[in-house]
Design brief:
Elements: E1 6-13, H1 17-25, E2 33-37, H2 41-45, E3 53-56, H3 58-67, E4 79-81, E5 83-88, E6 94-98, E7 108-112, H4 113-125, E8 130-134, E9 138-144, E10 147-152, E11 157-165, H5 172-176, E12 181-197, E13 204-210, E14 213-219, E15 224-232, H6 233-241, H7 244-254, E16 262-264, E17 269-278, E18 282-283, E19 286-288, E20 294-295, H8 303-323, H9 331-360, H10 364-378, H11 381-392
Parallel strand pairs: 1-2, 1-11, 2-8, 5-13, 11-19
Antiparallel strand pairs: 3-7, 4-7, 5-6, 9-10, 10-11, 12-15, 12-16, 12-17, 13-14, 14-15, 17-20, 18-19
């Protein structure tokens, strides 16, 4: 490490919501933190609407409130989620998830991804010990038990005691650290847009597993929902490029008029569906957070919540190490972080993959199995109440296709 290197205690690669929240979680420390992001500063300071609405659990809201981000998000961008319905094909039967009887508290709150990013960016930018290095990509990263060295596209070298990768589920930093991952490219894409519709949604989300498609309607303001349509990638691309009138007509037909006639209320966006599970969540002087560690299928609506709770755990362990004057990259500490994240994320990750396989299958036996399964679950209160509790997730476990 030569004298011209820029020295930091921690370098975070990726200024998505999880990377920014991790930097914000270290605000009360004296640690010198750098956040490296390839997007220019102007785009981070004024993030564009990207179609994604994040279903925040109560635990996530509590974390954002502690960071000062929750109150920075306008109330008009917060849409309560009062319940959810799961439908299968043309069957009128719906599996229902609601708040406990007598509770006025919603299952969660929907907030645009761009508003979360904007609030966290403003917090990190005001921190005395955090530095945003925007407009630069990482061209190399090496790590050892002595620390990490990161080379940027402009030739600068950063040295750090701890490198934290938060650069998406297809993390280049994870690859440079020599950490493998189970990457499942599903061959489908999710098309997302806001739509206006004739019928009221009553703040109830609907997930509809139909033949060769999955539709989710997330309730926003009155008469407006976020529509998520999962299709084979070539079909999603066709819909993305179709003209507005044809697109709106096809959407109304695909939804079988459940909410009446639909009209576009935003631009359209598509995201390829990829799930990832890193083989390890740490390496010498390095750790993975967010989608770089675990990239959930968005049908769970829990990817960002898991990432947010994971970064809090890592930051908490680092702050305790600082308080006790111990190494912030102590292998035993990083191992405990990994163990916590595995225990928290694995049940939901693998159960979701199993359910997605069941609910996306087109074989007649598979369609019959999910129909029977939905009806069976309806008569098992502990199943419905357990999933509702997971959605409220008071102890901290999140919808996004990615945490970027």
């Amino acid at each position: 490490m030569v004298g011209s290197d820029e020295r930091f205690d921690i370098v975070v690669i990726g200024a998505g919501p999880v990377g920014l929240s991790f930097a914000a979680s270290l605000a009360q420390s004296e640690l010198k933190v750098a956040v490296v992001e390839q997007q220019p500063l102007e785009r981070l300071a004024d993030p564009a609407f990207d179609g994604r609405e994040i279903a925040l659990t109560h635990a996530s809201i509590r974390i954002l409130r502690e960071l000062g981000a929750w109150d920075a998000i306008p109330a008009s961008d917060k849409s309560p989620l009062q319940g959810a319905r799961v439908l299968n094909g043309s069957s009128p039967f719906a599996l229902c998830f609601d708040s406990p009887s007598g509770s006025r508290e919603p299952l969660g709150v929907l907030v645009p991804n761009c508003r979360i990013r904007d609030a966290l960016f403003k917090i990190v930018r005001l921190q005395d010990h955090a530095q945003l290095l925007c407009g630069h990509s990482v061209v190399n990263a090496t790590n050892s038990h002595k620390g990490a060295v990161i080379t940027l596209s402009d030739g600068r070298r950063l040295t750090a005691r701890l490198l934290v990768a938060a650069d998406s589920r297809l993390s280049a930093t994870r690859d440079r650290l020599g950490i493998g991952a189970a990457i499942n490219r599903l061959g489908n894409s999710m098309l997302i847009c806001r739509v206006r519709h004739e019928r009221a949604h009553h703040q109830i989300a609907v997930e509809w597993f139909d033949h060769h498609q999955t539709i989710a309607m997330l309730p926003l303001m009155e008469g407006v929902s976020s529509l998520l349509l999962t299709l084979r990638s070539n079909e999603a691309d066709r819909l993305l490029s179709s003209d507005d009138d044809l697109f709106q007509m096809e959407l109304t037909n695909r939804c079988r008029g459940r909410l009446g006639e639909m009209t576009l209320a935003s631009n359209r966006h598509t995201y390829p569906l990829v799930t990832t599970w890193a083989h390890k969540f740490w390496a010498p002087s390095a750790a993975l957070v967010g989608d770089a560690a675990v990239g959930m299928h968005p049908v769970t609506a829990h990817g960002f919540n898991i990432g947010l709770s994971g970064q809090k755990q890592l930051a908490h362990k680092i702050l305790i190490a600082c308080r006790d004057r111990r190494d912030i990259a102590d292998p035993d500490m990083l191992q405990r972080y990994e163990s916590w994240l595995r225990l928290s994320a694995a049940p939901l990750y693998y159960a979701t993959n199993l359910l997605v396989g069941l609910y996306s299958g087109e074989h007649p036996a598979t369609r019959l199995a999910r129909h029977v399964g939905l009806r069976f679950a309806q008569y098992l209160p502990f199943v419905r109440h357990g999933i509702s509790a997971m959605l409220r997730a008071r102890r901290g476990t999140n919808a996004s296709c990615d945490d970027r």
